[in-house]
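Colleagues,

For the teaching module next term, I've prepared a clean inverse folding example: a structure given as tokens, and then the sequence designed for it. I'd like students to try predicting residues themselves before seeing the answer, so please don't circulate the second half yet.
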């Protein structure tokens, strides 16, 4: 009975499963899918949103908030109030540097706070002293100060203050011109004093070039070596700005060199002075016979000066004519030429400043006996000047012959108006002195058909300055070439006007153009008044620097040396 009941229960279970199992399985599958969808929604939507929120929250939390002030009663910089400008300058010009104070108003440290600007003035001229620590704690402040390395004024807007984890805040910077600070400042006329044992004292001029009075200006002498040099100041107790006084040095009996110092009790500088004491003059110098100063050449000319003795030569200089110095011609000085040594004295002349050559120009020194002399000439574009009119018209001679042997003219002709006695231009030339006029008449008279010396000069169309028109160069008149010197065979007197500038006197006799003695005789553009058809004037140059005049038949072959004029356009 029991078995039949058990069997009946099993049969009912089988029947129930058969009838309801499929729908149950479907429900279970549906619930499983719903659970999967919820899982996917959480993983792919909720989690990313939470991550983004967490990241943004993290950023918000980690950014520190900065404010800056410029020291104006602690007021925070505000662009709307226009109170965010600091002044900066060189360190010595402001009582305190321009500065900004940075405060960390957040709850986290502010890291690596820096001031920066893309403005080129900031990178070139602004220096800063960053007093901010690597990590500025919450509620703490630090200061960045600024100054400049230049005296100029400039303005920089929107200088940024920012840390690696902070907001950016800005201020403006105004650099102000640095005014010179009042001070007493000394200058001296010479840094070297050269004395001679038993000789006269020497003085230097001391000038206050500062803006404050210089107090107790004086000079001291080094104690070693003991040369016995005395020094005395003739300066007032207060040497006012732009005023000058004298300090005098008295030589002792011992030769040698020592150092003196010029100073004042309140001066911004001291000046060292070299004091040389030498025995009574025993030094002798050697210089060249002559030299040429190129006008308008900044390099000038260097003149070698040699000390021929075993004693140093002090303060060696050339004594230029006062008129040259007044016009701007300058020369250097050799402070000391050692025993048997040498030195270069440089001479320069401004543009278009030249003079007639001069000899007997002394080269001397403080302890030089029998100073040698030198002849100095000027050149323009490489050509020696032999005559100057009104300091602006310069007559120069060519540096080489147009011919070493050429006829005055192949034909015996009387060319009118060019003898040494001719006058009254323009019908006639001043034949003795105006070679340009003579040459123009000769060119017109012969018309290029008869060989003549004047034609050689006329045809020169290029010189050191470049191309020049025909006729720029001309054959000089007899009195432009030289003067009459009696006592030479074949000489004659053209009766040149007194003081007529000429090549023989102003150059050749001083040692310039020595090559003229090789040819000896040179044609002038002047005919002879005694036989104008056949004879013309020549100048003869001798090897000893002498020269004379004469007349001779025109078909002789002599040297041809041309001249020209430089004048302002």
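(Answer key — instructors only)
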């Amino acid at each position: 009975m029991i078995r039949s009941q058990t069997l009946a229960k099993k049969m009912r279970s089988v029947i129930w499963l058969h009838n309801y199992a499929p729908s149950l399985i479907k429900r279970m599958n549906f619930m499983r899918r719903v659970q999967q969808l919820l899982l996917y929604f959480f993983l792919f939507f909720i989690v990313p949103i939470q991550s983004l929120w967490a990241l943004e929250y993290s950023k918000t939390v980690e950014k520190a908030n900065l404010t800056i002030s410029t020291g104006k009663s602690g007021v925070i910089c505000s662009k709307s109030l226009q109170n965010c400008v600091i002044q900066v300058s060189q360190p010595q010009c402001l009582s305190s540097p321009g500065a900004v104070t940075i405060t960390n108003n957040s709850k986290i440290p502010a890291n690596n706070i820096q001031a920066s600007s893309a403005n080129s003035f900031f990178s070139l001229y602004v220096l800063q002293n960053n007093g901010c620590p690597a990590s500025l704690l919450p509620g703490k402040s630090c200061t960045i100060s600024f100054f400049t390395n230049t005296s100029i004024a400039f303005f920089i807007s929107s200088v940024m203050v920012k840390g690696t984890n902070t907001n950016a805040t800005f201020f403006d910077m105004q650099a102000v011109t640095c005014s010179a600070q009042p001070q007493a400042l000394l200058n001296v006329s010479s840094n070297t004093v050269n004395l001679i044992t038993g000789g006269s004292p020497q003085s230097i001029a001391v000038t206050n070039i500062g803006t404050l009075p210089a107090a107790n200006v004086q000079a001291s002498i080094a104690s070693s070596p003991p040369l016995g040099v005395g020094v005395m100041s003739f300066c007032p107790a207060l040497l006012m700005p732009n005023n000058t006084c004298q300090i005098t040095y008295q030589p002792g009996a011992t030769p040698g060199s020592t150092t003196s110092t010029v100073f004042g009790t309140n001066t911004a500088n001291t000046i060292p002075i070299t004091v040389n004491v030498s025995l009574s003059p025993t030094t002798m110098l050697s210089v060249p016979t002559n030299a040429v100063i190129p006008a308008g050449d900044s390099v000038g000319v260097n003149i070698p000066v040699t000390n021929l003795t075993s004693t140093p030569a002090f303060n060696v200089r050339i004594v230029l004519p006062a008129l040259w110095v007044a016009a701007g011609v300058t020369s250097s000085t050799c402070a000391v030429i050692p025993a048997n040594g040498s030195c270069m004295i440089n001479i320069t002349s401004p543009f278009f400043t030249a003079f007639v050559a001069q000899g007997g120009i002394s080269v001397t020194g403080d302890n030089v006996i029998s100073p040698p002399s030198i002849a100095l000439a000027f050149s323009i574009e490489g050509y020696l000047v032999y005559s100057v009119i009104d300091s602006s018209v310069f007559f120069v001679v060519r540096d080489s012959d147009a011919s070493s042997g050429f006829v005055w003219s192949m034909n015996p002709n009387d060319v009118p108006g060019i003898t040494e006695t001719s006058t009254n231009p323009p019908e006639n030339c001043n034949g003795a002195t105006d070679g340009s006029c003579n040459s123009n008449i000769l060119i017109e008279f012969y018309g290029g058909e008869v060989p003549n010396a004047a034609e050689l000069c006329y045809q020169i169309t290029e010189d050191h300055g470049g191309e020049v028109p025909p006729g720029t160069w001309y054959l000089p008149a007899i009195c432009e070439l030289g003067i009459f010197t009696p006592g030479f065979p074949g000489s004659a007197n053209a009766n040149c006007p007194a003081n007529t500038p000429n090549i023989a006197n102003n150059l050749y006799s001083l040692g310039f153009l020595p090559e003229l003695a090789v040819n000896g005789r040179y044609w002038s553009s002047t005919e002879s008044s005694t036989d104008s058809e056949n004879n013309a004037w020549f100048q003869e140059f001798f090897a000893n620097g002498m020269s004379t005049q004469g007349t001779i038949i025109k078909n002789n072959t002599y040297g041809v040396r041309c001249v020209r004029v430089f004048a302002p356009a």
